[in-house]
Design brief:
single chain; seven-stranded parallel β-sheet; Rossmann fold; 23 strands; alpha/beta; globular; about 550 residues; Immunoglobulin-like
Length: about 550
Amino acid sequence: MTASVITPGSIKRILSVLVLLTIGFKLNAQDQSLNYFYRVYFTDKGGNNPANYLPSDLLSERALDRRIKFNIAVTDMRDVPVNRQYLNEIISRGLTLHCMSKWMNTALFRTKEPIDVQSLLDLSFVDDVLLVRKPVGKSNYTKKLDFHSEANDDLEPGFHIAMLNGTSIHNSGYKGHGILIAVNDGGFLNAENISSLEDLRSRDGIKYTYDFVKNDPFVYDYHAHGTAVMSVLAGHLAGSLEGTAPEADYMLFRTEDIGSESAAEEDFWVAAAEFADSAGADIINSSLGYYHFDDPSLNYSPSDMDGNTAFITRAADIAASKGILVVCSAGNERDKEWMRITAPSDGDSIICAGAVDRDKQISYFSSAGPSADGRIKPDNVALGVNVIVQTSVSYVSSSSGTSFSCPILSGMAACIMQAVPNAAPWELTDALHRTADRFLMPDSLYGYGIPDMNKTLLLLQNKHLREQSAATLAKPNPTSGIVEILFKDPPGKIYIEIYSASGTIISKKNYADYSGRDLILYDLNSCRQGIYFIRLTTGTGIYLHKIIKTGP
C-alpha cells in the first residue's frame, strides 16, 4: 500500500478536526437524562460548498490518497459539513447536539422532555424532524447481540480460512498489512485484555476507539460482541485461533446501544462511517442489522429492504461510493417471523454476508434474500456456525451467527487488498461473486456462494497487469518542477488550484473553455522539494493529484 502511515496521534487529530469538531462544536458525553433524540433534516448546507474548503480541511491524507487511487471526485457536496448557523439556531432553543451527518445533511439532538416539533419545522432551513428515540420501559431487543459461546477443543483454528481457499493467501504473507478496518459494533468488553489480541495491541494496531452512543473514546465495556468479532478479524493464538486479517490496523467504534433498539443507532452508525471515511479506512465491518425498533412507528417493512430506503443503508452506499469496502452481516432472522436480510446489508454496493456450517450448508438462522427490488442477496457466505472466538481472558470458545461470517469475509478481503492495492472495492466485490461456488446459479439463501480467495487474487492480479486509464493523469511524478496534466476526455472548463501540504495556495488558474487533452504546468519550478496537491475542477468532476517535488 502506498497510503499514508497511520499513527494514533494522527487519527485523534482527524477526529477533532475532520468529523465531530469540524464546525466548532464540542460534543459532550451523553447525559442520561436527555432521553429524547430528534433527527433533524436540513434543506441545504446554507451556501457551503466544496470550493470553500481545501480537501485537507475535510479529509485526511490517507483518505485523499484512496480517492485519488480509485479516481473518485475530490471533494463533493457530501463532504461539506452541516451548516454551523443552522445548528446554532437549534441549539439556542435548548436542544443538545449529539452528532451529525454531512452525507445525509442531518443532525441528532437530545432533550430531556419532548419538544414542539412544529417550532423546528417552521424554520426555513429545516426540511423534516423525526423523533428517533424516546424512553422505553423495557426493550424487546436488548438481547439482539447476545451470542452463545461454548468450549470446543475439536475445532481447527484455520478451518474458516481454508473453507474460502485462503490458506495460501496467508502463507504468501498477505494478512492485511497496511489495510485500515473500521469495526462498528456494540462494545468491546475485554478486548484490551484477551490474549488473542496481544499481538495487535503490542504493535499498536488499534489506531483509535470511539463510543458514538456516549460520545466517549472508551469502548472496552457494555458488551463483548465486538470483542468476538475482533478476535475473528485480528486474533492470533498459535494452535488455537487465527484471525483473517491479523496484520491489519483497526478502529473500534461503538454504534449499537445494547439497552434499547432505536433508530438513533442508525445515526451513530452513520457518524462512525463518516469518521472512517475521513480517516482513510479501507473497509467497514458491520456485524449489525436493523429492521424493527422499540417504537414500532419507525419499523421498516420488508419492502423497505430495497437498498434505497433505510437511513443506514443509504449512508452505507455513500461510504462505498467513497472507495470503502462495506461488509455487513445478513442477519440471524430466517428462523424468526422477519426471515429476511436487514439494513444496511440490502445496499446495492454492500457485501451482505450469510452463514454456512462446516458442511457448507446454509445455517438455519442466516437471513434470506433477495433484496426487495430483486437483487441477489446475500452476496457471499462464509462459516458462521461454530466459529472460533475469544471474549474471555482465560479461554477461547466457539460461537455462531452471521456476525462472524461477516469478519471472515471482510478480513480475507483485506488480505486481497494488500496483495492487489490498485483493485477498487467494486472490482473486489465482483471478483468475490465470480469466484464463488454458486456464481452461475445464485439463490436467495447462499447468494453467489462461498468465494475462492485464491481465484479472487489471481483474477484481480491478472486484471491489474494492464494499466488502467484514469480521467486525469499527472506526470512525471515525482517531478523536478514541470507537471503535464493529461485528460482522458476534453475537460471543457478547468479551474486549477495548486497548494502545499500545509494548505498554502501556490497558484490558481482558470480556463473557461479548454478543448485540449494535455496541459503543461510550470508552477512548481520555483517551489522547494516536498509534497504538493493539484486540484482540478472540470466539467466532469473534481480531481486531486498528489505531486512529489524533487530538487531545490
